[in-house]
Amino acid sequence: MTSLEQVRNFFRREAGASLAELALITPMFFLMLTGAVDFARAYYVSIEVSGAAQAGAAFGASHHTDTTGITAAAQGGASDINTSKLSVTPSWGCECSNASVGSSNSSLSCASPPTCSSSTLVYWEKVTASTTYTPVFPWPGVPSSMAFTQTAVMRSTN
């Protein structure tokens, strides 16, 4: 067997083909995995912000004027994210039970409560929570930061 035949036989064997394919596919696999993890983290932050707004509104339904407590409850509802970047904006008011928040039969902070003829007076607490998420890696076509804002409204009769 001549050296030329040995070289031809070397290139005809497929022993290293699967290793070469693995070497080409592995970086793409890790890129896709990293992207999936990054977007999953963004989705988780949006869920935490929603939970923060709901926790703050639930606390505020019975403690309307305690904005410090509402903020603490909202931050407790989003304990798995950086709460120093969590913005919480509470507001409250009262309305007739057959009205919707912000309608003409609604009063912000109950400075002058509406007169309800055929329904009872109820109080509402509205909490808006927001934060910004920054992806771990810069992705083409994806903003460098994403703002998440959620609002929750709870009603109570006290």
Structure description:
The protein has 158 residues and is an alpha+beta fold. It has one domain. The protein has helices at residues 3-12, 17-60, 67-77, and strands at 87-96, 106-108, 121-133, 146-156. It has a 4-stranded antiparallel sheet. Helix 2 packs antiparallel against helix 3. The chain is rod-shaped, with a radius of gyration of 29 Å. It starts with a helix and ends with a strand.
Q: Main β-sheet, in a few words?
A: 4 strands, antiparallel
Question: What is the overall number of helices?
Answer: 3
Q: Tell me the distance between the termini.
A: 98 Å
User: Would you identify the regions where 5 or more consecutive residues have pLDDT less than 50?
Assistant: none
Could you state the oligomeric state of the chains shown? single chain
Backbone shape: rod-shaped
Task: Give a count of the beta strands, DSSP E runs of length 2 or more.
Answer: 4
- Mean pLDDT equals 84
Radius of gyration: 29 Å
User: What number of structural domains do the residues give?
Assistant: 1
Strand content: 15-25%
Order of helices and strands: HHHEEEE
How much helix is in the residues?
40-55%
* Classification by helices and strands: alpha+beta
Widest β-sheet, arrangement of strands: 2-1-3-4
Fold topology:
Elements: H1 3-12, H2 17-60, H3 67-77, E1 87-96, E2 106-108, E3 121-133, E4 146-156
Antiparallel strand pairs: 1-2, 1-3, 3-4
